[in-house]
Batch of 2 targets.
Target 1
Amino acid sequence: MEKTVLITGASAGIGKATAVYLAQNGYNVYGAARRTDKMQDLETYGIKPIALDVTKDESIVLCVDQILKEAGSIDILVNNAGFGSYGAIEDVSMEDARYQLEVNVFGAMRLAQLVLPKMRENKFGKIVNMSSVGGKNSFPLGGWYHASKFAIEALSDAMRREVKQFGVDIIVIEPGGIKSEWGNIAFESLRHVSGKTAYKELAAGVEKFFGATTNSLPEPVIIAKLIKEGIEAKSPKTRYSGGYMATPSLFMARFIPDKWQDKIIASQMKS
Ligand code: NDP
């Protein structure tokens, strides 16, 4: 039977590409985001756009209720919505730090809470949590973004060990660089928060490092393919990774001593 999927962050980048790819492969897809105008084109693929702000509980509850009413179940949840709140930890306001975690962590976990009862009842479900290679590496001026992705990694491990008994799989995706709106949003916050402070030179170095590859990054469909592989595997891997520099970044986090990593990162992020 056709499986129903809810994908958050479906108005752009990875979420949009995944919505289209899964719809083309026979899934009943609901795409959710704040900018519903950016999801109108998804209707040509049979995807149903839904307004969702993952920082607002009433919006999350309404979204899940609507799908459960229409489709009867949410078999697969792709927790993809997210952004990078950048700037030195000394400079980022506590309000911005909290908002980063609201979007990238609490929103995703609230959705998981709401879809799990039906998944347990059906003894079937897949929850895909979008982490990043930044869920294993922590680069300067991205502290709160990395904190959010490290949190996704930890919560996914805990949840996987909680819900396996109910036939539910938790799958973590760790993309490296992927072409999307992500970079511009992160650079804008970086310039705004630390572009004129004691960290301005480091900010210029970080933007130069990430910005150098922006135009040559792979298309988001490569992550859509990984997600499809994960949700269709009988026994999915706990983590899937792909995208620019994903393999070396994950290797560095796992095998290179911290102080060597410090030197490598400092040498790459000079302005
Ligand atoms: P984009 O900026 O292109 O897309 C982000 C999506 O998240 C948009 O659809 C946006 O929709 C949605 N979103 C942001 N805030 C909210 C909110 N409050 N409520 C609901 N939706 C929201 O970025 P990507 O496609 O690149 O990012 C997708 C995920 O992949 C993120 O979690 C990101 O951290 C992760 N990632 C991306 C990498 C990359 O190189 N691109 C690398 C590693 C991980 P709207 O604004 O309409 O609400």
Note: The chain has a mean pLDDT of 97.
Target 2
Amino acid sequence: MEESSRRKLNLGIVCHPAYGGSGVVASELGLELAARGHHVHFFSHSLPFRVPDAHPNTFFHEVEVTSYPLFKYPPYTLALATKLAEVCRKQPLDVLHVHYAIPHAVAAWLCTQMLPPEQRPATITTLHGTDITLVGLDNSFFEITRFSLDRSDGITAVSDQLAGETLRCFSTGRPVKIIPNFVDSDKFTPELRSQSRRSAFARQGEFLLGHLSNFRPVKRVLDVIRTFHILHRDLPARLVMIGEGVDLEPARNLAAELGILEHVTFLGPVDRVPEVLSQLDLFLLPSEYESFGLAALEAMACGVPVVASSTGGLPEVVEDGKCGYLCEVGDVRTMAERAAELLGDKQKITRFSAAARERARNEFEPSRIVDTYEDFYLQIIGETSESGSPGSDD
Ligand code: GMT
């Protein structure tokens, strides 16, 4: 991988480490930056799941929270702020880049308050979705979320739609820079498609559909099962469900109730996501809301068209009628019809598959987007006056 000619920075990256898009983006970004020669310090309560144990230029700082019987809820934010300040004292960070505002943006601000000015890192908060549209709007978090955004030196959002929502809901006077997510299309590639891998999920002559998420209510995983149920009446097909979360059992129960359980494989969380995604004929993402839809982008990079809800930032990722179809949230009948239409037309699905792959490669290619983050870091620490494409201030 190429080292960039820019000044090498000491960077802190804070994220939620478990399965979820914001942790994936934070990890992949950190690894790309490390490959460019920056020193990247990850902070979390466990190693983010896509970060390898030992990797050049990366350091992992585990945040341990001491429990005490007095605490019903151990104060993770305080332990995180303390760890951040401790590391900054030993090796000052140029930038502290937190992913998902809650509670990371507050911890970043607390850290800066604990340090003398010469040791304070610049802070950047990247908004990923429900930190703004759901959790951040809750009464118990709204005020502190707005406060911590106002105190961040820079704010980015992963889609135009999310940037707009941030300005609308939080009326922060701060500019929100749009920096979309990215996908490594050498890693997520149709080249991984193989009959032997596919045969683990589907028989000859069966179509293979899939879904990947953290099975939270916002993902509407029951709609995945309902869509598949309608489709399965007319087409020989199987469904692979990747991930886990609160709606896993309800999804399994619904599949049993509808009599399709034997056609659905619940894989749980998997490490080898590209190997599974690339076997699919179609990816389903019927979410209530997606700020971006990273899982859809990863499927597209594998040459898999997407049938999804027309919500949030998904229209910025999935080009309707070209790399997939976007339908009203909850309209499982139309989703099933669109899926059947695609699967039943060999020429069309081949065209959509190629367009999905092309779009992922051209529009969401890592190096250009990582350049934008690097530029933004330099701008925030005052070493350049403006940042480059593809993001723009809203
Ligand atoms: O907002 C969330 O639900 C958290 C986050 C996660 O960790 O899963 O997901 C969001 O961030 C991803 C990466 O930027 C986006 O691709 C997802 O669309 C977004 N999820 C939602 O907006 C529901």
Note: Residues 387-394 have pLDDT under 50 and may be disordered.
